[in-house]
User: Fold this.
Amino acid sequence: MSLARSKNYFSAAVANEKEMKLLGVRSNTPLFVWERITYSTSGEPVEYSKFVMKQDKDKYYVELELT
Assistant:
């Protein structure tokens, strides 16, 4: 199977109870949410990922290849 493309969604959120426990943050701490859906060359979705990160010391880099 070959991968063709992905859709990436970026958003902001505040920590809920589950995220507070997992990330060791206080209630309503600002978070960065990145969701990705990757598609095969036939157009079928083959992967879904969701990343939730603290915003205090992160740096983000995105590189796109335009063909």
In short: The helical segments are 17-23. The longest strand covers residues 3-14.
